[in-house]
Amino acid sequence: MSGVVHAEGLVKTFGSVKALDGVDLDVPEGTVLG
């Protein structure tokens, strides 16, 4: 993957609850998110 925003293996927890585990994100140039 490649892009303006790139992240691999994201993990988010709320206390003992794992909401995200191993999420990959790629936002290509020129993409608008909101």
Name a few traits of the molecule.
mainly beta; two-stranded antiparallel sheet; 34 residues
Structure description:
With 34 residues, this protein is an all-beta fold. It has one domain. The chain is 0% helix and 62% strand. The chain has strands spanning 5-14, 17-27. A two-stranded antiparallel ribbon has the order 1-2. The mean pLDDT is 90.
What is this entry, summarized?
This protein is an all-beta fold. It has no helices and 2 strands.
What is the topological layout?
Blueprint lengths: L4 E10 L2 E11 L7
Antiparallel strand pairs: 1-2
The radius of gyration over CA amounts to 12 Å
Judged by helices, strands and strand pairing, the structural class is mainly beta
H/E series: EE
Distance between the termini: 21 Å
Secondary structure tally, helices:
0
The count of domains is 1
Strand order of the largest sheet: 1-2
Pick out the low-confidence regions. Answer: none
Helix content: under 10%
Proportion of residues in β-strands: over 45%
Write down the overall geometry. elongated
State the total count of DSSP E strands: 2
Mean pLDDT: 90
Largest sheet: 2 strands, antiparallel
